């Protein structure tokens, strides 16, 4: 049977290969939390249609979660999913992400119909969440040292 595997390329991206053919990726970016720790925003994941259903998407996401768990500064992961993509919502919930709720109008500027998204998050090691519906699903803003000096 052909082998599939993710290859960690950096802390923020993993590439998926099937028999040495690039077939998918996951991309993320670190963000500063208000407590000085990091959260990781999962910006994109894709697997070519012909290679879906083989577990590569799960492996790619698990590689990001595992990398986050080994970095003591990362305490939270989050992402957005279009509300019509119920299969993706179920996929992330199965991986341990919490469904926080729907953000109305999140994709309005992109012209998607409906323009709403589901916010999903995963807190590591009992960390308090900073990503919630109150902040539009973007995470509570981190306070810069400059802001603290003038507050």
Our measurement of the CA-to-CA distance between the termini, rounded to an integer number of angstroms, reads: 61 Å
Helix content: 10-25%
List the strand order in the largest sheet.
1-2-3-4-5-7-6
CATH topology: Aminopeptidase
Point out poorly predicted stretches: 6-10, 143-151
Report the mean per-residue pLDDT as an integer: 85
- CATH architecture label: 3-Layer(aba) Sandwich
Number of helices: 3
Rg on CA atoms, Å: 16 Å
Which class in CATH terms?
Alpha Beta
H-E order:
EEEEHEHEEH
Please provide the count of β strands: 7
How many structural units, i.e. domains?
A: 1
How would you characterize the largest beta sheet? 7 strands, mixed
Percent in strands: 35-45%
General shape: globular
CATH superfamily assignment? Gcn5-related N-acetyltransferase (GNAT)
SSE class = alpha+beta
How would you describe this protein?
- This protein is α+β, with helices and mostly antiparallel strands and 151 residues long.
- The protein has one domain: Gcn5-related N-acetyltransferase (GNAT) (Aminopeptidase, 3-Layer(aba) Sandwich), CATH 3.40.630.30.
- The chain has three helices and seven strands; from the N terminus they run ββββαβαββα.
- It has a seven-stranded mixed β-sheet, with helices on one face.
- A hairpin with a 2-residue loop joins β2 and β3 (21-32).
- The N and C termini lie far apart (61 Å).
């Amino acid at each position: 049977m052909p082998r599939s595997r993710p290859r960690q390329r950096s802390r923020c991206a993993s590439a998926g290969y099937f028999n040495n053919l690039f077939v998918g990726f996951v991309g993320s970016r670190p963000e500063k939390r208000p407590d000085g720790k990091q959260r990781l925003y999962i910006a994109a994941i894709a697997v070519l249609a012909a290679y879906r259903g083989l577990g590569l998407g799960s492996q790619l996401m698990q590689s990001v979660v595992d990398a986050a768990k080994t970095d003591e500064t990362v305490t939270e992961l989050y992402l957005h999913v279009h509300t019509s993509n119920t299969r993706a919502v179920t996929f992330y919930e199965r991986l341990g992400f919490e469904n926080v709720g729907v953000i109305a109008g999140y994709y309005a500027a992109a012209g998607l119909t409906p323009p709403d998204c589901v916010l999903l998050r995963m807190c590591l090691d009992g960390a308090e969440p900073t990503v919630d519906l109150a902040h539009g699903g973007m995470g509570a803003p981190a306070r810069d040292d400059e802001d603290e000096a003038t507050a």
